Structure formats: structure tokens, C-alpha cells
Amino acid sequence: MSPRIWPAVALLSAAAAAAALLWVVDPHQAGNPLPPCPSRWLTSLLCPGCGSTRALHALLHGDLSGALAMNPLLVLSLPAVAVLALEWLRMLPTNFASLATRLGNARAWAVVLIAYGVLRNLPWPPFSWLAPGGFGA
């Protein structure tokens, strides 16, 4: 058995618990127990992760358009994250190895996240459309 199994089991357990919480708790409702984004609270700017909780809630409830409205980068990056997770577990078919190598480029992710964080704070369309619903200009 791979030594990576136990961390994977712990990660999957945490993800299942988070999914169960997001299934029950609606982050759109005022007074929900989920914490607000600390970056937004401190700076009033949208970080690349702002809207992720609401996007995941929408995905769990089958609302793809609602999820895309909250955080399109998160929704679009989930397949890449799945490929990287399978590669980390050594469960990815070998014909996807080059894809996993390209997707695992930390510099590319840093550029995408920084650019996304900057662009979603610009106050005019089409960039304001990157802000979570309700925060855009």
C-alpha cells in the first residue's frame, strides 16, 4: 500500500466533511456560521479565492452557472486539480503524465492567480464580471 494513501484518506475525509457542511449551510444567507474572507475584510479587495465557498455550495447543488458567477477560476480549475491529485496518488494513467507535469507548474499557477486577483478587482466590464455575484461594479 502506498504511503500516500493515509494523507489522501485524511484529505478526502476533510473534503467530505466540508461538502456535508456546505450541503447544509447556505453561504448566501446572512448570519451563516462560515467565516468571511479575511483578505476582503482587511483590504476590501477580492482575493482569487473570494466566492469559492459560494461556488462550491452551488456546485454541490448542481448549479454550474451560479458557481461560475461566484468564482469562475475555481470552477474551471477543478479538473486540473483532479488530475494533479490523481498524479500525486500515482493513480493517473501514464498517457496523462505530460499533462500532469504541465498542470503542476507552480510558476504558471502563480501568474494565473495573481493576474486573476488583479483583474477581478477592476471596476469595469468584462473584468467586473469576475467578481462574485453581488460584489461587481
Folded structure, characterized:
- The protein has one domain.
- 58% of the residues lie in helices and 0% in strands.
- It contains 7 helices and no strands.
- It has helices at 5-24, 38-43, 52-60, 64-70, 72-88, 97-103, 106-119.
- The protein is globular, with a radius of gyration of 17 Å.
- The termini are far apart.
Layout of secondary structure:
Layout: H1 5-24, H2 38-43, H3 52-60, H4 64-70, H5 72-88, H6 97-103, H7 106-119
Helix pairs in contact: 3-4, 4-5, 5-6
- The helix-strand sequence is HHHHHHH
Largest sheet: none
Radius of gyration (CA) equals: 17 Å
- Number of helices, where a helix is a run of at least 4 consecutive DSSP H or I residues: 7
Q: What's the overall geometry?
A: globular
Task: Provide a short characterization of the protein structure.
This protein has seven helices and no strands.
Descriptive tags:
137 residues; mainly alpha; 7 helices; 58% helix; globular
